[in-house]
């Protein structure tokens, strides 16, 4: 199985700050990497698919990049409504595997 | 508007069975793969099962393979998850999800496995 390692586990940043979240796969996942945002008490929501494709309705301050085993989610200017836990998911091979998440809060 | 509504959760004893349902609306159900993903209380996400749009192929992780069965009724726009031989570690909120990448999630249904 492909292991997905997210870092950091917890991140505190200021409004307006540029934030970078990392997801590392245990082997090449050929850019089949998605990012989800989960706010407290809600179902997850798709932000980015296939590394760098913004899902419909997602603000442009969110972006994704990466290749091979290393992937990044960037929020260009952190907003209060971005407080959430962010998960990555690899879809390169079965079984699909999620990272353990990065909890993002406002400083 | 896409809607996915899960039902069938509850409290069940270890070793027993439970069947979840997910009624879909707002899209052409038989055009999409469907999946179940779960989340244990306070924990991360775990993919549980996927099924092709025709229902002809299914996929599972080892943690549920042989115990859980995903199926669908395209005439009724309904997705199912039959869960047998339940264990305490199956306690979680189960989400019905559309497509891969998963673009829509249901609100989730809680399953508690405890004696």
Please tell me what the overall shape of chain B is: globular
Strand count, sense and closure of the main sheet of chain B? 7 strands, mixed
In percent terms, what proportion of residues of chain A is strand?
A: over 45%
H-E order of chain B: EEEEEEEEEEE
Round the Cα radius of gyration of chain A to an integer and report it.
Answer: 13 Å
Q: N-to-C terminal Cα separation of chain B, in Å?
A: 40 Å
Largest sheet of chain A: 7 strands, mixed
Order of helices and strands of chain A: EEEEEEEEEEE
CA-based shape of chain A: globular
Q: Which residues of chain A sit in consecutive blocks of at least 5 with pLDDT less than 50?
A: none
**Uncertain spans of chain B, ≥5 residues at pLDDT below 50?**
none
Number of helices of chain B: 0
Biggest protein-protein contact in the assembly: A-B, 23 and 18 residues
* Portion of residues within helices of chain A: under 10%
- The helix/strand class of chain B is mainly beta
Q: How confident is the prediction overall: mean pLDDT of chain A?
A: 97
What is the helix content of chain B? under 10%
Percent in strands of chain B: over 45%
Radius of gyration of chain B: 13 Å
Q: Give a count of the beta strands of chain B, DSSP E runs of length 2 or more.
A: 11
Distance between the termini of chain A: 36 Å
